[in-house]
Amino acid sequence: MACFVVPGVEAIVTTIVTKELEKKEQKEMELNLEKGANVSELQKERFSAKLKKLNYLLYGGSGLLAFEHLWHGEIEPFFPFLTAARNPLDIPEVLHEMSTVGVGMAVLVTAAWGVMTYVSSKMEKTATEAVKEK
Amino acid sequence: MTLLLTLVAAVVVTCIWYTSEKARQMKVSMLCYMFWGASLMWMVDAIAEYIELRAEYFQPALQDMLNDTFLGVSVIALALVVWVLTLLVKDPLGVLRPAAQNK
């Protein structure tokens, strides 16, 4: 009914966090460059770049799910957007689905991204150490 | 069926992204994110439906299966259209920019 709204809202929040983080990391990088930091250290994948991948997963997923809901006539392009919201008796059911399936979707996507980020960080670390040893 | 089709699309696109440098330049990763994101979300939906319906979940009516197949193909088509539009706007290979400059 409206399960895709939860990962959609998470995507908006993580986008705002990403933008703020980007600004912070840019400032830090400029400071480090002034201090004469090693270029290889600056080439590391920044956390904001990793967070962008989560944004793409969440936007992509919730976008395609929104299309599915449109297909099934569960959402409409005009107010109140959710067809179930027309009837106040259906609202508890919508909220229940959002709090179970919707939250489950957001958690699973975030967990998958977490595993992906952890593995890629480990691989990056191993590669950096191998270069240092040479 | 929608989940299955999206999952197959996600796997195929990931294989293309992994093996082809040109595909990586053409931002195929965007399709990977879209298909994997949607697959994971539909997986949760499928689990919730399975908990409710149990074995019945695996015996859908022919009409429902056809509709879900049509939806799955449409979802893939929509993602491809979004990707092509992004490709044309961002022009990562610089194909459109020289053409625009020549005019």
Walkthrough of the structure:
The complex is a heterodimer of chains A (134) and B (103). Chain A has 134 residues and is mostly helical. In chain A, 76% of the residues lie in helices and 0% in strands. Chain A has helices spanning 5-34, 39-42, 47-71, 91-133. In chain A, helix 1 runs antiparallel to helix 3 (47-71), helix 1 runs parallel beside helix 4 (91-133) and helix 3 (47-71) runs antiparallel to helix 4 (91-133). Chain A is elongated. In chain A, 24% of the residues are buried. The mean pLDDT of chain A is 88. In chain B, helix 1 (2-19) runs antiparallel to helix 3, helix 1 packs parallel to helix 4 (62-90) and helix 3 (29-53) packs antiparallel against helix 4 (62-90). The mean pLDDT of chain B is 91. Chain B is mostly helical and 103 residues long.
Task: Find the structural class of chain B using helix and strand composition.
Answer: mainly alpha
Largest sheet of chain A: none
**Residues in helix, % of chain B:** over 70%
Estimate the mean pLDDT confidence of chain B.
91
Strand content of chain A: under 5%
Number of β-strand runs of chain B: 0
Largest interface, Cβ cutoff 8 Å = A-B, 24 and 25 residues
> What is the arithmetic mean of pLDDT of chain A?
88
Q: Determine Rg of chain B (CA atoms, Å).
A: 18 Å
Termini separation of chain B: 47 Å
- How helical, in percent, are the residues of chain A? over 70%
| Strand segment count of chain A | 0
Structural class of chain A: mainly alpha
CA-atom Rg of chain A in angstroms:
20 Å
Please trace the helix and strand order of chain A, writing H or E for each element: HHHH
Q: Detail the poorly predicted runs of chain B.
A: none
Oligomer: heterodimer
- Could you spell the SSE succession of chain B in H and E letters? HHHHH
Strand content of chain B: under 5%
